[in-house]
Amino acid sequence: MRPRSILLGSTLIGFSSLGCSRLGATLRSSALLTVAASVFLLSGCQASPNMQDGPLSAWTDDPMRSAPPISRGLDAAGLSTLLSAELAGQRGDYRSASKGYLEAAQRYNEPALAERATFAARFGNEVSLIEASALRWRELAPQAEAPNRLLAAFSLQRGDWLDSLEQRLDIVEAGGHGDVAAFAEIAVAEEAPLSLILQQLRAHLAQSDADQLEHHSDVLLATALIEAAQGETRLAQQRLTQVEALDPESSSLWLVKARVALEIEDYTAAQRAAQQGLDLAPDDVRFILLLAQAEIRLNNISAAEVQTNALLESHGGNQDLRLALAQLYLEEGHPAPAQRLLQPLIGQANVPNLAYYLLGAITQSQGDIDNALLYYRQVREGDEFLSARATAAQMLIEDDRLLDARAFLRIERMRFDRYFSELVMLEVQLLDEMNQQQDASALLDREITRTPDDTSLLYMRAMRHWEMGDIAGMESDLQQILRTEPDNAEALNALGYTLADLNLPGRLEEALELIERAYEQAPDNPAVLDSMGWVYFRLGEPEEALSWLESAYAQLPDQEVAAHLAEVLQALGRSDEARQLLQRFMQRTNQHPQIDELLERYPELTPSGTP
After folding, report:
1. Which of UniProt's keywords are assigned here (predicted)?
2. Cβ atoms within 10 A of the Cβ of 82, count?
3. pLDDT given at position 6
4. Domain tally for the chain?
5. I want to staple 105 with a disulfide (CB 3.0 to 4.6 A). Which of 50, 113, 374, 583 is the partner?
């Protein structure tokens, strides 16, 4: 198993390729998200406030002012804990305040204490404490909407789609609004496990009292969106007919109708639904955007431009929206209107990086490689800088100009010293993708010789050594990093985990010491928690390993942690729990090689019904 990177994208680069033939496909992955974000921010009251209020959103005022008072049931120890928590909150130490209130909530089983702990943790932006406090709050007050909403947001943030949906449906069943349709939109866009989500939605709708719940129509709309994405258009249309009978004046209905129609490529129906929604909610920019999308798909480009111009005019020519709409036209394969949208930005004092990037993509799609390169090179340091260089280099390679691509990246390294490491890693990755590993290794070795303390390059080379089975080379590079940066948590964790995973004789205590040092630097990082659990398991202490792995899996429910946790449960004689864990995970995805490897060693853990 590969040592897990604990810094998301900091040293391991994943650049997308942009070629003329793949322009639309590549833009689709980013353009719609940018459009959606811009429209979401501009839509004001039309957007659900609950979806905006994510688990890490900042408070602008002290939430403790409105937190429920603590008034009864205190002994000396409890009073001391609460006084300490209260004083910590008053001096702005919200972490200590939250821990104190949470301890009191465990002691007294009082929901108000857990609520107060959550408020304090949230104001201090303490992720692990927010989740722990919200879990205790929900445990003590199962009908409370706020903890479920927080937990749903956390689950979605870490990619646990089914748990997030479960929290939202709990809110609906308690009479609240779970934003299930908005969740479904995100699920479709992010390629979530739609079949499993659909099963969960249908199970809810099959309950005898489901249609009596206040926000039943929101669940119907979510189900219609998922069914349409799964190709079950007839059922989706039936759901929409149900909602129309319940609330024909609902703008959300027409929003979903337009999106479902776009999904099934009934662009005329999408056009009508978007217009109907716009009539009901003339200030909701989402309908203008959907109408423009429908017109583009119908090849009514002039009509689409009327809509997008109206949208821009209504928002004072908003620059971010202009860029997002240009991306939309490009994604739909219409570079000319995209270029017209971008032209007013050229010549301004501070042209956004994205404008140059998009102009480069437009020029590239027209086959003008050299002028496209000029646009990409005008992208300054900051957002889009690395994407522009990656796209330009890939463009040159696809034009059979590998030497030009490498010369371009070499010059850019000299021009932008701040991005030296990232540009070297980009060139290494491009060479690897062309099966020129020898040249890639030579480049990396040469640049490390010039900059022997560059920890990013050393870490990349360490991972390449690991992939080639050269554990000694990997360790040498990681040790070099630690000589330069003794507290580098990523290097500590990678080396410690590798020693533990390989179960090298006489080196497990060393692995534990390395991982403990990584934990001191990154105590809330799930990759480090996973490593800690795994090294304790290797040391023959499954009881100690269990709590670490459970904490890791709560934050990062991926297959590697799942396999580790299942193996520890098996060692503790809890095979049924291990089997259930694996079954739940295997239902989410068809690709799980690490779990497959575990089942080869422990066939008795194979879930029933698994081929």
Report:
1. Repeat, TPR repeat
2. 20
3. 62
4. 2
5. 113
Instruction: Tell me the CA end-to-end span of the chain in Å, nearest whole number.
Output: 24
State the Cα–Cα distance between residues 202 and 199, nearest whole angstrom.
Answer: 5
Do 54 and 153 contact (CB within 8 A), yes or no?
yes
Q: Which residues fall within 8 angstroms of residue 257, CB to CB, at 6 or more apart?
A: 240, 269, 273, 276, 277
190 in a structural domain: no
Cα–Cα distance for residue pair 129/135, rounded to 1 Å? 10
DSSP H stretches of helix in 214-266: 216-229, 233-246, 251-263
Determine whether 234 is exposed, middle or buried from the number of CB atoms within 10 Å of its CB (0-12, 13-18, 19+).
exposed
3-state helix, strand, coil in the chain (%, to 5): 75, 0, 25
* Six token digits for residue 601: 């060693």
Contact (CB, 8 A) for 76 and 60 = no
0.85 surpassed by pTM:
no
371-419 pLDDT, tens per residue? 999 999 999 999 899 999 999 999 999 999 999 999 999 999 999 999 9
SS3 assignment, position 607: coil
Residue type at position 375 = Y
Indicate the range of 12-26, 92-106, 372-386 predicted with least confidence.
12-26
Residue 284 lies in a domain: yes
Greatest alpha-carbon pair distance for the chain in Å reads: 78
Cβ 236 vs Cβ 200: under 8 Å: no
Strand (E) or helix (H) holding 265: none
Sequence-separated (6 or more) residues with CB below 8 Å from residue 41 = 320
Asked if residues 193 and 162 have their Cβ atoms less than 8 Å apart, the reply is: yes
Residue type, 381: E
Domain finish residue from 287, 316, 336: 336
Structural domain contains residue 320: yes
CA distances from 399 to 309, 361, 384, 424 (A): 36, 15, 22, 21
DSSP state of 20: G
- When the pLDDT of each residue in the chain is averaged and rounded to a whole number, the result is 83
Would you list the DSSP string of 325-371?
Answer: HHHHHHHTT-HHHHHHHHGGGTTSSS--HHHHHHHHHHHHHTT-HHH
What are the tens digits of pLDDT across the range 468-516?
999 999 999 999 999 999 999 999 999 999 999 999 889 999 999 999 9
The region, left, alpha or beta by phi > 0 then psi within -120 to 50, assigned to residue 308 is: alpha
Q: Which domain holds residue 585?
A: 557-610
CB neighbours of 341 closer than 8 A, spacing ≥ 6?
A: 308, 322, 325, 326, 329
Question: Crossing angle of helices 593-601/575-586, nearest 10°?
Answer: 150
Query: What secondary structure does DSSP assign to 199-216, as a single string?
Result: HHHHHHHTSTTGGGSTTH
483 CB neighbour count, 10 Å cutoff = 9
Crossing angle of helices 385-398 and 369-377, in 10° steps, is 160
Residue type, 15: F
* Residue 38 pLDDT greater than 70, yes or no: no
Given 285, 309, 336, which residue is the final one in a domain?
336
| CA–CA separation, 382 and 353 (whole Å) | 8
> Rg of the chain over CA atoms, in angstroms?
27
CA distances (Å), 59 to each of 40, 56, 153, 156, in order? 20, 9, 16, 21
